[in-house]
Records
---
Amino acid sequence: MFKGITRRWVFSTMLLIVLIIILIVTGLIYGTAYLFNSEVEKTLTTAGSELTSVFENYETDNSSSFSSGASSYIENFRHKEQMEVMAVNSSGRIILTSTGFSYDENEDVKDFETAKNNGKGYTFRNTNTTSGEPVTSYIRIITNHNGSVVGAVRYVVSTTNVNNRIVIITAIIIFAGLAVLFIVIFSSSYFIRSIVTPVRELSETANKIAHGDFSTKIEKRYNDEIGDLCDAITDMAKDLEATEQMKNDFISRVSHELRTPLTAIKGWAETMQISGRKKLDRRTFDKGMDVIIKESGRLTGIVEELLDFSRIQTGRMVLINEKLDILAELDEVIYMLKDRAVNENKHLIYDEPVEIFPPVYGDRNRLKQVFINVIDNALKYTPEDGVVAIEIKYDKKTDADNIIITITDTGCGIPAEDLPKVKEKFYKANQKVNGSGIGLAVADEIVQLHKGKLDIESGVGVGTTVTITLPILSESKESK
């Protein structure tokens, strides 16, 4: 019947609340009964307190003398309308009563012996008359100057009205307890439903998202933690949908990137195989081999990029760090890409500094990979006759611990809404230019592994500036 949060609520919170209410109701009922009975006993005690003066200095133990004194006391008793008063002799027999009705002289008064033997000289007793009427009795022992018991006075009052009041108040307390319990159950049930229902919807929505349905929506009903959770899952679904779309675009781009060199390699290989039987001329052979080598290198680069990205995502990329000259590594990369810039009719500008730069502690090949990826992107997005400028600097005053490399192009630029995302995996701001879209993400991760930073500034139609900050080799590492 109950399960999950509802079950825990019923068997922990609700049962505890019910137990507390029962204890409170029981305590109130017993407290009410105790208060009323205490009032009855107080009334009887007050009535019996005058016995001290009536039988003060009582010196005889003669029964007729006690009977005479008790008869006088009973005859002048002021509260005959409220209670009945009886005289009991030293043998525990009723000898006089204020009602004037006949009484059984042989009737034992059971509370007489109790009062005589309990050391207090009095006792209370709740009982019923022969007619079934509930009464409370109070008996007080009378002694002479020697301490001998000469008799007792017994007061009896009906508790019918008191019991009726106790019953009425008990019924009111029980009704109030049930009302409180109903309100608690109703309000708690509403509260639990306000949690369980959205959580169940969240669970169903999360299950749909887990199965790839990112378009599902959650209705936000409350502006609280549950509402915040609804917003978080909705945002997560949107992010997952965007990531899924980027992943699909990435797969499509990579497939295209892989298909292009594979098609060229396969086409020229088939051409050379067929033409080889007919004595392929040297010029065609050289051209075909150039295409195959070039496209194989391009294919290898794509696969290596994917492998690097996978290593970074799984934390398996290991740097082979060593002391190196960052100027030499940057020079080598620029030299590699200079011919490409010339062939594409683009200007690659770099003025090698004359001063000596401090060494960097890093992975030679990985840092070259970063430079290649960033400069390759700059050339890729720069139009003909455009400029890609590279600068490396180290200022002891302002950049005492870092070497800063900037690559600036005059390309199309990156829109402001895309700029924060260009370093994310699978993201590609410009879909018209070839590329997998993970090169910049890989470069950023490699720079971070070197405790550096890769920052990007761009403006549409102005160009893009990539700033790579690398820490210099510290003296502690150099000494090792």
---
Amino acid sequence: METIPARRGKAAYVRQGQSIRIVNTHGSQVVDTWAFTAGMLTEFMSMEHTRATLTRMIPRPGDGLYTNRRRKILTMTEDTSRGDHDTLMAACDSERYILLGVKEYHDNCTDNLFAAMQALGLTPPECPSPLNLFMHIPWTATGTLSFDPPTSKPGDSVTLRAELDCIVAMSACPQDILPINGTAGKPTEAHYEVVS
């Protein structure tokens, strides 16, 4: 089991047919998750294309996750959590924290993505909108959104099977201003493993 350090990112190669299991170790940690095709980083998992294909907001076990070329890159095969994940919110970045009133540099998922990919010698062409695992963003019939604490429990996990050779990048989200990583506002580490 590999560690995604608190407030940091990690990336791993996942071959077609392998799976990656992402574990919410302490139960209150959002894990922003991206996938890029191994041969062409300009093709990547796209939340916009996935929502259009699934015709729902949140993927469930058995659902595919689709690229910006409308190819299935991952399939969610297991989810031991309540299933509260987010496909709407962009990854946090320095500008987001400025809007939240932060004056100095703040760790963020966008920088974590680039650092995780660069650790593999890769540079993504952009920061796509991630699959925010364990992030609880309820919405109302009128379209109002809220940032709520996670509903996941310690040890809850999501397993994603690779349908294409890909690189999966993950960020243990550093958000400590809004309660998305729990009301204590203390981001923690998470874990992952690649399994055949």
---
Amino acid sequence: MSQGANALPKSEQLNIEAFSKLFTHTANSYKYLFFLALLNILKQRNFNHAPIALQDLMVEMLVIAWQAYHPHRLSFGNKDMIAGRFDVFAEVGSNLSGEELRKAIASKMLSTTKELKKFAPYRLIRPFFEMELKGVKSGETNQNIAALSRDRFQDKKPLYSIDDQDETISLHPEWIEYLKTNYDAVCQWFFAAWLEYMQKCNSSIDNLPTKLALL
């Protein structure tokens, strides 16, 4: 698998093995898009430690997805709802970019951003709590992950904690430093995993690495 721990820079303080499994059980594009949105926003904010609103992450996810869908009509998988939702956005968003695109997506695709919040932020960090989640019913998984991300923030050091009430995430300071220091290496690791997933969904598309590299 392209997303193995050996492909990532090592750390004595952080659980790189858990981090390497972020995309292990993936049925759609949401976790990939969420992680790339997280990287983008972190870089835009110069890796500061301020909480990130889930709504900002959802909008960034859709911006990334639109930039792949609109020019290339890439598929995100049979179980993925994002491309279907873009059909109603195509006329509005065809000539938009940058902040105009973000504002249009935020206003025109509000219901989609709400649906994306239900799973990706929680399931992405599940590998940090595999032992604690054994036997937990599916309907209680998100609630447990959110609680664990807060209660075990100091000792487990998950990538981030989730504040359900404020609808924000707060990255662990040590992960922020890791991502800042190893940004290029983490991006390369992510791109290999993202490309592997998208190749399965777009087997007939030529030059897929080039198309994805433009995102």
---
Amino acid sequence: METDNLNIIQNLVADKEGGKVEFKQTTGQLERGMETLCAFLNGEGGAVLFGVKDNGAIIGQVVSDKTKREIAEAIRLIEPFAAITVSYADIPGTGRQVIALYAEEQRYMSPFTYKGRAYQRIESVTSVMPQDKYNHLLMQRGGKYSWEAMPNPDLHISDLDENAIIGAVRAGINCGRLPESTIREEIPAILEKFDLLHDGKLNNAAAVLFGRNLYDYPQCLLRMARFRGTGKEEFMDNQRLQGNIYELLDAAMSFFFKHLSLSGKIEGLYREEKLSIPYKALRECCINAFCHRAYHRPGGSVGIAIYDDRVEIESSGAFPPDMTLEKLLGGHSSEPPNLIIANVLYKSELLESWGRGIRLMIDECRRACIPDPEFHTDGSSVWVVFRYKLETAGQAPDKHPTSTRQAPDKYPASIVRLIEMMGEQTYSLKEQMELMELKDRENFLDNYLNPSMEAGLVEPLYPSQPKHPKQKYRLTEQGKALLQEVLQFRVGMDAL
């Protein structure tokens, strides 16, 4: 065993000093060696060898019980606790040993400190870690040090959208993930149960999930663009929106319905709406992007780009360090970097199940007979590509039956979807939003209901009393005519 240790050390020495190996002549240099070991823990791991000269000559040193106690005591001064491997290799015929301290990469636990200071390794040089880098690593660690868990003393409950909070609670009760008694509790108690409020202070996760007017959170941004063709040379539509997760998700789905072709198929008594890319796959991808992204980077955002042949959804962040593409596409346990945010989304039924999102996206695409989604990362961002046939992009009017071309071309797909969902029935505002599976009231009004009323397709039962307690909405004669045109259009599409 000692021979094996010596062979390993000889191989390390052959690699020379650098980003992952440090030589020290004796443990008289233990302090500097431990600083380097701390730097290795904050990097990609490495080994510190005592008993090796700077030029790589293996000389060893006499190792006593005192030496071993000093090493053990020095290791205990590294925080948080790290598993350091200590080995001793005999140099035959000398009575001396080489001491090797090994540190594996600990990305989930960094930054580490030795005697209260953090260190970094650049090439063969160990130095004190700059404060901004230390803060960056600290926020990535998770738990109470994560960005989402950090309290914001300037954030108040009045800065949160109470309707969004209550909506999340109702959704959680309906799916059985929250007890019915939750709806009767005060907002502060609900926020405490969601782990968003501690000692009277809201954390950053509260702003991301339910915030309004998020001027102090530039990263709560959604970028949306529809490009003409398959490149970025020309915009057809370009939007930027700041808001909480529920607002941004509604806006993202509205954008998809506006720019991806819509078709439908009657299944028994129900009508199933289909986009060029399955609705559920796009929605799940957006939820993952909002839930798992790196919020601690102020310049980060979520981006949606629609082309004639594909959709790309991008977010700041990266896959877990040990998560290979093979694991990602196969069965894997969920490791959300934002545990608080993920937990609230799960309880409010936005996250259907831990670790199943990618499988759902793949299954939905296969069901629609389009290619599997592609998953990419460059270490600082993650993007998913959904590809579809060129002729299904946009509205492709040349592929539609001539007699029914007007219906999808004249009105945005978001309006067409509302008209179809309403049919011949009368609905309240709340019932319409539930029917459309939308949670953000302002987004629904701006992109669905108000444009439909302005176009003369939908009317209120009490037009002179917009806030009437029994206010509901129905299709006008013009709306009913459009509904018939759309249904004829769908039949024509199904016949192609």
